[in-house]
Specification:
single chain, 338 residues, alpha/beta, Rossmann fold, 2 domains, 6-stranded parallel sheet, 13 strands, 40% helix
Amino acid sequence: MSNFLNKPGAGFDRILQKGISYVRILYDGLTGMTGSREENLRRLAEKLGTADAIVIGAGAGLSTAAGLTYSDERFDRYFFDFKEHFGIRDMYSGGFFPFPDDETRWAWWARHIYFNRYVDAPKPVYQDLLSLVRDKDYFVITTNVDHQFQRAGYDRQRLFYTQGDYGLFQSAGGRIKKTYDNEAWVMRAMAVQGFITDDSGVFQVPGDRMLSMRIPHDLIPACPDDGGPVSMNLRADETFVEDSGWHAAADRYISFLQTHEGKHVLFLEVGVGGNTPMIIKYPFWAMAAENPRAVYACLNYDDAVCPEQIRKQSICIDGDCGEVLKALEKRIERVYST
């Protein structure tokens, strides 16, 4: 890491470029052969206890393991009317659907935001991960936009959401370099569609399943600063707004890496797929390769691999992230109980 983190202007973009440059010179390919499952679990449990710092890189696989799925039963429960009327099959594709008007489009987005941002994940996978690092010097970089790290109790000063946040609006086209909290709007938009709160204050589909797929025109969200249209603060193109909070989190991430340069760092990658590997996966590989004391760990379903060059520094565990984290908890508990 000393080759690039301590240079002037060593910001987040330099981290990304370093990862991309490293991948371009890979010469031995990838491998998942870092030991048996039991051996890998043992080694990772040990590294969680001995590392000077833990850098967690989290992708969509972590939220999927936590039950925040975008299709099947969960989609059918909350979007059954959109499915029947428009033929939409999952939440992801629904985000790109050409709805006939803004009233319908923002009714969709109110539900999409609420059930992926303002409710806890069905399974306590985020909490399980926190239990492994709570007393450690950790930092989280994530491409997830569902805010589950904060909901689970992670220190917000140790989080960097690189791709945005379902809980934020921005001016459409990125005209104004600010973001706006959308919670109050989401709650109103859910209520006018006919959702009702249960005893825990969580919106549910009413018993008669009578919901509206439109919100009133005067509830269509507008930019607080200029009254213009808004969009989601999600990185889809060059209009994505990196506001002051985004830059502050990026700076904290870089500072964390610099502080632990050359130390025994565990780069713990959890559920990172192939959609945006240049944000977490490639930089983790590059930083592990430049620091012989570092360890790279990959927890992934059917895609737990590492470059052959850093195989001896790596721990690859194939499987559901939630199940792997539970297995790690049990192994660590056994160590402390003996």
